Amino acid sequence: MISGFDFGTSNCAIGIHDSNLNSVRLLELEQGKRFMPSTLYALDRELISESVGLSIATDELKSDYIDLRSNHLARAQHVRREQGFGSDERIVYVGHEAFEEYLQWPGEGYFVKSPKSFLGASGLRPEAVFLFEDIVTAMMQSIKARAEQTLGDTISHTVIGRPVNFQGLDAEQSNRQALEILQTSAKRAGFKDVEFLFEPIAAGLSFERSLDADKTVLVVDIGGGTSDCAMVRMGPSYRDKSDRSKDFLGHSGERVGGNDLDIQLAGKHLMPLLGMLSKTKSGLPVPTQLFWDAVSTNDVSAQTRFNELNTGLDIEQLLRDCVEPDLIKRFISMRNNQQQHQLVRSAEQCKIALSSADRVSSSLEFIEDGLSQDVKLEQFAEAIDRPLMKMLSLMEEAITQAQTQPDLIFITGGSGQSPVIRKAIHNKFGDIEVLDGDHFGSVASGLTVWANQIF
């Protein structure tokens, strides 16, 4: 079978072309849902390699993998003996199950959210690349198996979505590294043939099926990790063409997305409850880098600093120097229990709720009983101003490349539902019509359309 695979920063989805209905069908992946959170939890990090190796179906690929990961697999066996994990004990969870394990045991095991955000990170050592290959492979293996179970057939070919740029710095090298990780992982997960397509173009192909007249469309895909834009000629005269290269007039993209909005909201409106705006006994404000490192869950370097021994010593000194030590104790508790992902998730839930409300109470009960923070829509707008300006600049860049104005703007991606973002687009681009599609399924649907054309 042929598929489109949206391995997204926030969620994953797989689609196939249903010949009976002559339409795209997104497959159920867990709990009857078509979208699975991009999360993984392992009882121990070393056990991820073991899980991957056991699930590789092709003998040649499995043999090559065992040779490449011999040291990792030996360490996995050592961890099993040391921790007393049984041979039949489940060791890796993905999607909602990963969240559930993390929330139940936040200070234990190994949890990663949105691994796609890290794939293009500069300066990754080979060991880090191996780790991300294994994380992505383990997730793809699970997602592919679930999709095939729903389908009752084997999926062999796929088109995977990719952002225009995985990172802003050294984009060419970043993109090459990320695509190699995705390609390697997809092959180990059992896909025989793998192609890639820009995510905003995929979203546009999905939207194009609804057009009854030709249009020049600015497609804006505000994903979890990146925002990507494409200017595309589309409509009845274009949709059946096998070569669409001349219809793609301009594109832009940068590593700024929904996760960045969550991080800004968490830093500016939740972290003050943990001491971020406190003062020292000398009257100076406390250093804020510690707090920003905590919530920067999409930044490898920030998370490394946050978990270093020296950071713990700095926080202990801050506890002695701060005029509000009880707030710093909350921060210490959050760090000891590795609840920074949960904190950012609370900000994400607040952001989502503010799409249909002017004021939301964000609960931080997992840190302290009764702890919460009220956030107003205008406070959210102020908090996300900087990443929002970057998103608007990307839209302008794609229009400039195309050397023409769009007839309409099509928005997809979860954060595209925010009234703050919609208002900013209207203020920037005036009366150009703005339309919505499936904010979560447009990319997967478009990838499936393209896969059915090229395979």
How would you summarize this macromolecular structure in one to three sentences?
The protein has helices spanning 47-55, 59-68, 70-83, 96-104, 126-151, 171-189, 199-208, 258-270, 289-295, 300-306, 309-321, 325-336, 340-353, 377-383, 385-402, 419-429, 442-454, and strands at 2-7, 11-18, 23-26, 36-37, 39-42, 92-94, 110-113, 157-162, 193-198, 215-222, 227-234, 248-254, 359-363, 372-376, 408-412, 433-436. It is α/β, with parallel strands linked by helices.
Can you put this structure into words, describing what you see?
With 455 residues, the chain is α/β, with parallel strands linked by helices. It folds into three domains: 190 residues, Nucleotidyltransferase, domain 5 (2-Layer Sandwich), CATH 3.30.420; 98 residues, 2-Layer Sandwich (Nucleotidyltransferase, domain 5); 126 residues, no CATH class. Helices cover 47% and strands 19% of the residues. Strands 1, 2, 3, 4, 8 and 9 form a six-stranded mixed β-sheet that branches. A five-stranded mixed β-sheet has the order 12-11-10-15-16, sandwiched between helices. A three-stranded antiparallel β-sheet has the order 6-5-7, with helices on both faces. A hairpin with a 4-residue loop joins strand 2 and strand 3. Helix 1 packs across helix 3, helix 1 crosses helix 5 and helix 8 crosses helix 13. It is globular. The mean pLDDT is 93.
